[in-house]
Records
---
Amino acid sequence: MSLECCAPIAREPLSESDAAELAALLKAVADPVRLRLLSIIGSHAGGEACVCDLTGSFDLTAPTISHHLKILRTAGLIDGERRGTWVYYRIIPETVNKLGALFAPMAEPARADLGLAPA
Amino acid sequence: MSLECCAPIAREPLSESDAAELAALLKAVADPVRLRLLSIIGSHAGGEACVCDLTGSFDLTAPTISHHLKILRTAGLIDGERRGTWVYYRIIPETVNKLGALFAPMAEPARADLGLAPA
DNA sequence: TAGCTACTTCGATGAACCTCTAAGCAGTGG
DNA sequence: CCACTGCTTAGAGGTTCATCGAAGTAGCTA
């Protein structure tokens, strides 16, 4: 899937393979814990956060957090790097932008396209 | 959740309740079949499509398509209306736009915010 | 009324998923 | 070398989910 994968969702029918790839990406963010992980990492000072900054925000065990981070990393949404004792995660903006492009703002009525009503 | 629910994902940490609501919305689109259903409905002439226009595009039974349409409708992504024999579905743009706002384009480096280093 | 088509609801099955505990790996420091 | 902390991997248990066949509802037509 290229960086600029697909037209906005309502522009033209998605191919089966594009839909599969986008669905996999969306499944990675379709979880409240992972959504909050992303937002915490992305808004953290320096653009990155170590796992120790994350576990405190959840009533979950460390292995569970690690599991969610792995899913985000596998999906290409974040990248992790070990520096000494700690592992730091950072958002990969290109992947997030792909989702933004998919749901790019629609015109509200979406009916002008048809020549139905000039008014 | 208001129309303009949340700041972009990487701007500030999501609240637990916002994350839960957004995750529910994302789970509705995190499926290749539903993604294609949305794109077919949205790009169909007239901005709407009847179920009979949809089933032909999938190797799935009618109950399964109906199941996916119900999930999209429950999530507020589409709206259905019966006219005579057929049922027509239409995208609700406001809900789609909510997702677009969540993944609004990020600046690529995202490090200028810190005053860490101009160079 | 009866019959036909379009679509939805119901109930069941098998796969995928979130969470945990236990155990393993990496790095630091006595 | 041993102990300790930070994080990940492995395996298990309970829940959710996609899909199907069968049955139900809604509308048209004769």
---
Amino acid sequence: MAGLNDRKQKILQAVVTDYIQTAEPVGSRAISRRYKLDLSAATIRNEMADLEELGFLTQPHTSAGRIPSQQGYRFYVDALMGPPSLSRQEEAYLANVFTQLQKMREIDQIVQQTAKVLSVLTSYTSLVLGPQFRHSTFKQMRLVPLDEEKALVVLITSTGHIKHRVINLPQALSSQELSQIVSYLNEQLAGQTIEGLSATRLRQLRSDLYARIELLSQLLLLLEESSTDGEGRVFLGGTSNILNQPEFKDVEKVKHLLTLFEEGSRLSFVLETSLAGVSIRIGTENVITEMSDCSLVTATYQLSNRPVGAIGVLGPTRMEYSRVITIIEHIASHLNFVVQD
Amino acid sequence: MAGLNDRKQKILQAVVTDYIQTAEPVGSRAISRRYKLDLSAATIRNEMADLEELGFLTQPHTSAGRIPSQQGYRFYVDALMGPPSLSRQEEAYLANVFTQLQKMREIDQIVQQTAKVLSVLTSYTSLVLGPQFRHSTFKQMRLVPLDEEKALVVLITSTGHIKHRVINLPQALSSQELSQIVSYLNEQLAGQTIEGLSATRLRQLRSDLYARIELLSQLLLLLEESSTDGEGRVFLGGTSNILNQPEFKDVEKVKHLLTLFEEGSRLSFVLETSLAGVSIRIGTENVITEMSDCSLVTATYQLSNRPVGAIGVLGPTRMEYSRVITIIEHIASHLNFVVQD
DNA sequence: CTTTAGCACTCATAAATAGAGAGTGCTAAA
DNA sequence: TTTAGCACTCTCTATTTATGAGTGCTAAAG
């Protein structure tokens, strides 16, 4: 890409750093004062004009300072960004959080809490996609009789994920027949991925056992829902944080984002399609148009070496990238240990 | 309370109705034009001055129209409010929604969907408190062995609510001993309310079975959490709707509410403490200070004739009360039928 | 050739001023 | 008791007028 000489890079870095902090267009004088580049304002002015022409900076209006363009941020993130840093307190806070998380048993709780922590630490909005189990495989199905009419079906995956439902028992079935059906299903389905329990496969089973159709359809419904179902739930944290950003002082701007936050499926799509590792999408690099004024930093977390979920931080393009990245890496990697249940 | 003569009531009603629609202070002329009270603007002016002195109206500034005071809204809601009305389409929409809800099995889904519907219909923000099971009684506990090391504990309440968890089995225990423990617990706890499983009671059991302490503590943990635990989860719908209200065009105003929306426990408290039936809290009648510019209309829904949850709509004090009340009653009562699982 | 000082110019933002309009309260007549 | 008339208040909008930060360009200095 661009062959920015050393000086241009330093200046660009200064502009981005300053703008991230102040949210105000930064002028040539401000830079020559605040950053010890040993250059006069005039020189910096010239370089900034160049940087603008190259597409790394923009001017809100003719006689204002410069602000980084999307391309400017991109270059900053790829090449200039300073080393990460967390304060002592933050480290301590994180450590404390993780011991808390360890204690929690309910996956929802863990995810929810993670979202909260992520937003508190970054002061942006956080998105957390709970673990996806559709890639895990069918382990077994159990039927626990509750009374004469009802029973509890328990579906267990290889990853230990459990789903249950109460179903009605047809009176006619003896308990023996019941256990036959269940063990038949267990045989047939063992080792299949949940995702792979496609409708056609299930339909075939259905015809195999057509005599027991009523009971069976209830069982199958549970399975079917497990494969499609709303596992992709996204938990949000710090949604009100965006209101602290000066770029969202206008209510109209916020409205689009807020509305987006209510559309779980679109959010989960964004997170599901993030690559393994940390990914950074700046401005219009985001597919979702509502996010085109924002940057989204995401990371996936693993479960037995397979990515099963993702966490993300959404803020203005003027985001404290290095800080956010550090935090998100930290949390994602620890989540690997916590989510083993 | 106040002995408002007929004419004053009519005028107050006109002011409130108009203000609810327009969100603009309403003047004497506007009323004499728009409402056929056959009175001149001057007369209305006099009456409005009286109404202000009596505390039902306020003036934003000396030469502006009047807007209803909190007391004004209260009187309107108690005495003046017009009859409810829903359009054909809305009725149809509702009917359709209910058939959809009937099909859903997962309680979370139902609650979530209800929140959404409520917010779409009212165009305010909706709060839905999922069914509370702490008043229901312990029915039975089951242990489903998964493999040699692990087992699934299933806790079932009289209302059919189910909670499960995987626990580790101490190697030393024979399956016979296991079932002994479980049946002992079943005996001891049968019929107790979940809430009543207080720490002391559980501690006593713990000492009874101190020999099996390791296993037991896992079981008891599940119970304990069931009695305290986050059952009081509140689902929100249409949070971005508040941004459409002109009274929240200022970001600062919104921020407080948005932040409140992230504090689940406070929200659930509000809903838990609402009376059976429909309740309307206007402005500072709300205990939560962040809501003092809002009105909250809530209704509880039943399960076997006992209130177990609540739904609510939060909007500006300038709310379409009669409309909201109709909708909320409608939905709450239907929820009674849907939530029987 | 690069850097810097100097200077005119641009443009947003803020403060000051002037009208316009909506609505009131009061008085006096119907 | 009601209504018409009128002066008065106060917000809101538009216009004007500074102010000042920051630029681009030119010409001199290194």
